[in-house]
From TrEMBL:
Location within or outside the cell: Cytoplasm
Annotated function: Catalyzes the pyruvoyl-dependent decarboxylation of aspartate to produce beta-alanine.
PANTHER family: ASPARTATE 1-DECARBOXYLASE (PTHR21012)
Protein's UniProt name: Aspartate 1-decarboxylase
Species of origin: Flavobacterium nakdongensis
Name of encoding gene: panD
Origin: domain of life: Bacteria
Record: residues binding substrate: 57, 73-75
EC number(s) reported in the record: 4.1.1.11
Cofactor binding note of this UniProt entry: Binds 1 pyruvoyl group covalently per subunit.
Example of a GO MF term: aspartate 1-decarboxylase activity
Keywords tagged on the record: Autocatalytic cleavage, Cytoplasm, Decarboxylase, Lyase, Pantothenate biosynthesis, Pyruvate, Schiff base, Zymogen
Cofactor requirement: pyruvate
Length: 116
């Protein structure tokens, strides 16, 4: 049996932009992606702390150490610059493996989305 568990989480980052005219996705600072073990194209869930919105999209790399967190395409209507969001990805694991699996959890500075 397999179950879905949290693989990666970037906890409480500030939205830096919303680009309605982009095809779709969320642009995430490459350093945050690396620290959380999220890869480009990976499906992610976005939870908006400010308004309770929840949505799914996929991750794309933003410039390293830029702090960029931009919701693109239709998702741009679900956030405002400055909103605090949580970015979560999941993995399918065998039940026994899931019992000992440790996810990558990242807690950036909310003010500038930096890792320090």
């Amino acid at each position: 049996m397999q179950i879905q568990v949290v693989k990666s989480k970037i906890h409480r980052v500030s939205v830096t932009g919303a680009d309605l005219n982009y095809i779709g996705s969320i642009t995430i600072d490459e350093a945050l992606m690396e620290a959380s073990n999220i890869i480009e194209g990976e499906k992610v869930h976005i939870v908006n702390i400010n308004n309770g919105e929840r949505l799914e999209t996929y991750a794309i790399k933003g410039p390293r150490n830029s702090g960029e967190i931009t919701l693109n395409g239709p998702a741009a209507r679900k956030v405002h610059r400055g909103d605090i969001i949580i970015i979560i990805s999941y993995a399918l694991l065998d039940f026994e493996e899931a019992k000992t699996f440790k996810p990558w959890l990242v807690f950036p500075n909310e003010k500038d989305n930096s890792l320090t």
